UniProtKB/TrEMBL annotation:
Residues 1071-1224 form the TRAPPC10/Trs130 C-terminal domain. GO terms for biological process: early endosome to Golgi transport; intra-Golgi vesicle-mediated transport. This is Trafficking protein particle complex subunit 11 domain-containing protein. Residues 359-372 have a biased composition (Polar residues). It is found in: Golgi apparatus. Coiled coil: none annotated. Keywords: Golgi apparatus, Transport. It comes from the Eukaryota. Residues 337-380, 1234-1257 are annotated as: Disordered. The keyword Nucleotide-binding does not apply. It comes from Hortaea werneckii (Black yeast). Residues 50-223 form the TRAPPC10/Trs130 N-terminal domain. GO terms for cellular component: cytosol; TRAPPII protein complex. The lineage of its organism: Eukaryota, Fungi, Dikarya, Ascomycota, Pezizomycotina. Its main location: Golgi.
Length: 1257
């Protein structure tokens, strides 16, 4: 039998192969049904089902419901797509209407929205928005002929909707209450679709409708509170997508800006004409209401939690929404398959561009109106910074609209109020003809003609009831925007708002809070380079500090303000094309009288304030031309600068510091003669110094002082790369330093005090050497002179206490008076701890004259190494010592040795050779040899003192380089005086000397050999660089004089006998200690020849023939310390023992007998030893030699005996040294045997049978 279920399927299901089943069966248990739903009478018991069967029954029901719903929907969607495709195909045909196309396509969007495809629906609305803009652009351009698309010229009810007085909160709400959504929803209460169908909608309403739909869809996707309330969900448990919520704010900002222009044009086209004030008031009111509506709809609980710092709940509040998707069995697609031109996938907020942010550590904490700190940041919440940023932009848009409406009543707040109060000034323009059109377009409004419109938003009426209410609302909006920006880590935007609040507080007369606000924002203005804004802020900040009586901070602030103004004035004077830039207009700030005021106030400060001079003065130049006084020492330089201040300023003093290029420790200070006044424009100040010095100096620093304000300028850039200079390497004085700018070459006047430092010409090596200071007073009447010496070489010791004629005290020498033109010579003994080629020191002399106190300082480097070395070679005889002195040059330049003399001592007497060949020239590779014979004097040893024993070698010489330099100096000085250029001698002569010292060794040797000096050329000396430093009037004459001198003096005669040679002549006394030897042995060597040998100059010996030799040894202790000075060590009872060793070449001689013999010498007897010699190789050979050494001493006996080296010394003189003998073969008989040859060719060579036999007798 058929069941009821089968009958229902047969009656209600369609027939056919593709028909779907619409009938499903679900069995309900009787126990699960309420009693009032049970049938009467009671039904039979239901069939029992397993849990799996029950689950399958319910699943079958749900599947059939889905299929029944989605089937018709898919058909409807396909119909919509077909209609849209048809409308697209007719787009270029006459009669096409965009409104009709919009209705078809929106139908598809609403259908997709109804089943949850919100993103696809939003994509369709985006396409429609773009299409609407395209159509409007084509109609405006006149390219829409034949289309039936028309729009209303104006919106008839927009004024009513804007001015509608719905239920709302008093004043201006903060936008976070849901009541405000209802209050401003009246802006969209209109049947837009009906007007679209009739093609009577205006462009303004069309865009409003599109934005309303887009906003609703995005809010639904973001799962905001407003969207949930519209869908009936009041639980509010689901999280919100802040990224999508921020997209709503971003779209709203763009929509409001674009549609405000459309609304302004719409109101202008309305039949009822309105004044410009009414139009602006309505547009501002609509803008304000739209921003408020979006702010209320995008309010998220996470914003409040982040503002309160509840970080723990941010994760739950900002969790992404979870959507439960439909699920079909067997993997079926839950949505109909669609193929259309619409986008198939869409990312959330693809056009979002997050503004650049800064790290939290750099974000300032601005003061708020309530006195609390800035809100903490919700770090780690996706989309929170973007949402806070775009909400802040909407809040700032509200503030701007509020200001526009309030301006109609003449009310302004913040920077607008300050600029409105600023006095009007004349505009500076250039004299270019092309700049006539460059005038200010927007003139400031007069305070007497204000027309306020009454057509304003009802919500704004309480805020515009009075100026105080407007300022209160303005402050509240600023505080709200500032907190949003702080939450988004937008520190720069926060600083801008804080600056506005500071100006509002200043407008209200609250000076303390104004000062606090400005103090927080000033660093940001300075870092961003907002010159105009920073100047105005500094001006107001300075006024606040002055009222609060904070003197020091007020002075520094005014200095910052004046620096901005002066820099702007400096840039205006530079050549540039004109660019209109309001940010650089610092002339709106009145700074007249400020600098003299703060200079007077600075006197009472406890510390001085240093500022860069270049911030207030331009064209800072210290003229490198050195000018001298006409009657005293020292020099002057001219300092020039341009004062950019508007007032005259009195300075107490001006100082400049020069630092030596060659020695950074040497400084020279110049100062003005007294106070001076700097007027606007070019100022010239004469700086003078009482210091005498020489050399290139870099201009390091210039400073001017007024009160306790010091303006300094660093002229010399600091070098970042250190220069490596080797010990013996000296860079050129001028060429290597000219690239360092700016610099001054300082030199003293001709008649100034002169101090020449050199080493003493007379040197005694057994005494400290001396530094000679030659002082010439010049035109000075010196009352007293103090000389300070400071060694700069390691190990240099100056013995000031041993200086004659001066009083040493506290490391300096004090001397008495010195008249005009007087000369004084001071010799300062010195010693060095280690051998060094050069020594360096710095001297500073301070001298008092009736015209003031002057100083002269200089760093000098002198040659410490002697010009030559002396080596001694001694050869002892029994009663005579022969000493050979080898004198060689050490400096490379030749030395002329004039005289040499070895003086006797109390112990020894010297015999010189008949002629030493002096004077002679000593070159680097050709030393001179001096031979002397030394004997002991016939005096008692007990009377001889050891200190009187050394001899004295006195050498008189002329160093060729000193003679050449002195000759060039003398000739050059005479030439300068002939050309009346003696005033430059103190500049030119040291440079010439320095350049000549750098000549090569070959140049000096050539000059000595040819007795002629080759002067370096004009270019080699580098005169062109020096001449360029002098005044232009002197340069031609000086250059001509120098060139002529080089032409005439190119080959200067060198004279070693003239007065110049006598002046540079030097003398060195070298103590020569005679060595002491305990024993001197003289060895005689005699050969016992045969009778038939004749006495010849060279003896002839026969190979292999033995011969007897006799060795005789004579010894004495005449040269021992005990014999010369007495005392000393004594020999033991048996006398010292020596070992004689016979040394012969084993390839030449065979020695028979004892080759090593021990003996004890005797003063009165000669020790004789016999030995046998056999020559074994013919030729000329030296006789064997004899070497005598002290025998080792044996201490102890038996097994404990130990040998030790003897403490005696000895010298051996072998009389046969260098004697040669001729060794020949001893040939007596010769036998020759000749064998008869056997062939004709045997004469070509000896036969094997031929032989020669020799034999010795």
């Amino acid at each position: 039998s058929r069941t009821v279920f089968d009958r229902l399927r047969q009656d209600f299901n369609e027939t056919g192969k593709t028909a779907s089943d619409h009938i499903a069966q679900v069995r309900l248990l009787k126990s699960e049904l309420p009693a009032d739903l049970l049938p009467t009478p009671a039904a039979a018991e239901t069939l029992a089902e397993t849990p799996q069967e029950r689950e399958n029954a319910w699943k079958d029901l749900m599947d059939k419901l889905k299929t029944s719903i989605l089937g018709p929907f898919d058909a409807r969607v396909r119909q919509y797509e077909a209609d849209i495709a048809e409308q697209e195909a007719r787009r270029s045909l006459p009669g096409w209407n965009f409104c009709t196309f919009f209705i078809h396509k929106e139908g598809l969007a609403k259908a997709l929205e109804s089943i949850g495809l919100v993103e696809d629906a939003l994509a369709i609305y985006d396409e429609l928005s773009l299409g609407l803009e395209t159509v409007i652009r084509e109609i405006a351009a006149g390219r829409a002929e034949g289309t039936a698309t028309i729009f209303a010229q104006h919106t008839d009810d927009i004024e009513t909707r804007i001015l509608s007085d719905r239920e709302q909160a008093n004043g201006v709400s903060n936008g976070e209450d849901h009541k405000l959504v209802t209050a401003h929803a009246v802006l969209f209460e209109k049947d837009y679709r009906e007007q679209i169908v009739r093609s009577t909608i205006s462009v303004f309403d069309f865009f409003c409708y599109l934005f309303m739909r887009q906003k609703a869809l995005i809010l639904r996707l973001a799962n905001t509170k407003v969207a949930r309330l519209e869908l009936g969900d009041v639980s509010g448990s689901a999280g919100e997508d802040l990224v999508l919520t921020s997209e709503v704010c971003w779209r709203a900002s763009a929509f409001i800006h674009n549609n405000a222009r459309t609304l302004r044009q719409d109101l202008s086209n309305a039949p009822s004409k309105k004044s410009p004030e009414d139009i602006e008031a309505l547009v501002s009111s609509w803008t304000y209401a739209m921003a408020d509506l979006v702010l209320s709809e995008t309010a998220a609980p996470v914003l409040e939690l982040a503002a309160k710092g509840e970080q723990g709940q941010l994760g739950n509040a900002a969790a992404a929404p979870k959507r439960a998707d439909f699920e079909f069995a067997m993997g079926a697609n839950p949505y109909p398959t669609r193929s259309s031109s619409l986008m198939t996938a869409r990312k959330s907020a693809p056009e979002l561009k997050r503004p650049p942010s800064v790290p939290n550590s750099e974000l300032m904490s601005p003061p708020s109106s309530s006195g609390t700190d800035a809100a903490p940041k919700g770090a780690g919440v996706p989309g929170l910074p973007e949402l806070a940023t775009y909400r802040a932009e909407l809040v700032m848009l509200q503030r701007k609209m509020l200001e526009h409406i309030a301006a109609q009543s003449g009310w302004r707040a913040g920077w607008a109020a300050m600029r409105q109060r600023a006095p009007s000034k004349m505009q500076d323009i250039t004299l270019d003809e092309d700049d006539d059109h460059d005038t200010t377009e927007n003139q400031q409004e007069t305070t007497s003609d204000y027309v306020a419109s009454s057509l304003i938003l009802p919500a704004l009426k309480p805020a515009l009831a009075s100026e105080s209410a407007f300022q209160e609302t303005y402050e509240r909006i600023c505080d709200r925007a500032m907190r949003y920006y702080a939450l988004a880590t937008q520190s720069k935007s926060v600083e801008v708002i804080v600056g506005d609040l500071a100006m509002l507080r200043y407008q209200q007369g609250n000076i303390e809070i104004t000062e606090e606000y400005i103090r927080n924002v000033l660093p940001g203005y300075a870092a961003d380079g907002w010159n105009s804004t920073e100047a105005e802020v500094l001006s107001i900040y300075a006024e606040c500090l002055k009222r609060l009586q904070r003197t020091e901070t007020y002075i520094t602030t005014v200095l910052d303000l004046l620096a901005k103004v002066c820099v702007r004035r400096m840039t205006r004077k530079l050549p540039h094309w004109r660019v209109e830039d309001a940010h650089l207009d610092t002339e709106a700030v009145d700074v007249s009288g400020l600098m003299p005021e703060i200079c007077a106030m600075s006197i009472h400060l406890s510390q001085q304030i240093d500022r860069p001079m270049s911030d207030y003065f331009g064209g800072i130049v210290l003229d490198p031309e050195v000018r001298h006084h006409s009657d005293c020492d020292g020099f002057k330089l001219e300092f020039r600068f341009n004062s950019l201040l508007a007032d005259e300023l009195d300075f107490d003093e001006c100082k400049a510091r020069l630092v030596s290029v060659n020695d950074s420790a040497q400084e020279v200070w110049l100062s003005s003669s007294g106070p001076f006044c700097a007027s606007p424009g070019t100022v010239k100040v004469e700086l003078q110094s009482h210091a005498n010095t020489f050399g290139p100096f870099s201009i390091d620093q210039i400073s001017m002082r007024s009160g306790k304000l010091v303006f300094s300028h660093e002229m010399q850039p600091r070098s970042s790369n250190p220069t490596l200079v080797l010990n013996d390497e000296k860079p050129p004085l001028i060429e290597s330093q000219l690239h360092k700018r700016p610099f001054v070459f300082v030199y003293p006047p001709e008649k100034a005090l002169d101090v020449d430092v050199s080493t003493a010409n007379n040197v005694q090596l057994d005494k400290p050497r001396g530094l000679v200071f030659k002082i010439n007073s010049g035109w000075n009447e010196i009352e007293d002179l103090e000389l300070k010496l400071r060694p700069t070489s390691a190990g240099l010791r100056l013995h000031l206490a041993d200086v004659a004629g001066g009083k040493a005290r506290n490391g300096q020498l004090e001397f008495g008076s010195l008249g005009k033109g007087a000369n004084a010579t001071i010799e300062v003994p010195y010693t060095v701890e280690q051998a060094t080629p050069d020594i360096s020191l710095r001297f500073e002399a301070q001298y008092h004259t009736p015209k003031g106190t002057f100083t002269i300082s200089q760093a000098v480097t002198l040659r410490h190494r002697l010009p030559f070395d002396v080596e001694v070679d001694d050869m002892f005889r029994l009663d005579t010592l022969f000493s050979t002195f080898a004198v060689c040059s050490t400096g490379g330049a030749p030395i002329m040795l004039l005289d040499a003399e070895l003086h006797d001592s109390s112990v020894y007497e010297v015999e010189s050779p008949p002629s030493l060949g002096l004077p002679m020239t000593i070159f680097d590779q050709a030393p001179a040899s001096l031979l002397y014979k030394i004997r002991r004097k016939a005096s008692k040893a007990a009377q001889a003192m050891r200190k009187d024993a050394p001899l004295a070698l006195r050498l008189r010489y002329i160093a060729s380089h000193n003679l050449i330099i002195a000759a060039l100096k003398e000739n050059f000085t005479q030439h300068l005086h002939k050309r009346e250029l003696g005033g430059l001698s103190r500049l030119l002569i040291p440079l010439l000397i320095e350049r000549c010292k750098q000549l090569s060794k070959i140049k000096f040797e050539t000059a000595v050999i040819l007795r002629q000096v080759f002067v370096p050329s004009y270019d080699d000396v580098g005169w062109a660089e020096i001449v360029s430093l002098l005044p232009d009037a002197v340069q031609p004459e000086l250059s001509d004089a120098l060139r002529k001198w080089h032409q005439h003096a190119s080959h200067l005669e060198l004279d070693f006998t003239g007065p110049i040679a006598d002046e540079v002549q030097g003398q060195i006394t070298i103590p020569v200690e005679v060595p002491t030897i305990d024993f001197v042995h003289s060895v005689g060597f005699a050969l016992c020849e045969s009778d038939h040998d004749q006495a010849q100059k060279v003896q002839t010996l026969r190979v292999g023939k033995p011969l007897q030799a006799s060795v005789s040894i004579r010894s004495n202790d005449r040269w021992s310390s005990r014999s010369v000075f007495g005392g000393g060590k004594n020999s033991d009872a048996h006398g010292p023992e020596f070992a004689m060793e016979f040394q012969a070449d084993p390839d030449t001689w065979l020695v028979g007998g004892h080759r090593r013999v021990h003996f004890k010498p005797s003063k009165e007897q000669t020790s004789t030893f016999e030995i046998t010699l056999i020559p074994i190789r013919p030729g000329t050979h030296l006789l064997p030699s004899v070497d005598i050494r002290p025998a080792p001493e044996v201490k102890g006996e038996g097994h404990n005996a130990q040998t030790a080296q003897s403490s005696f010394s000895c010298e051996t003189y072998c009389e046969a040294a260098g004697r040669k003998v001729q060794v020949i073969r001893d040939v007596r008989t010769v036998k020759v045997h000749v064998q008869e040859s056997s062939g004709p060719a045997s004469h070509a060579r000896p036969s094997a049978g031929s032989r020669a036999v020799t034999g010795s007798g």
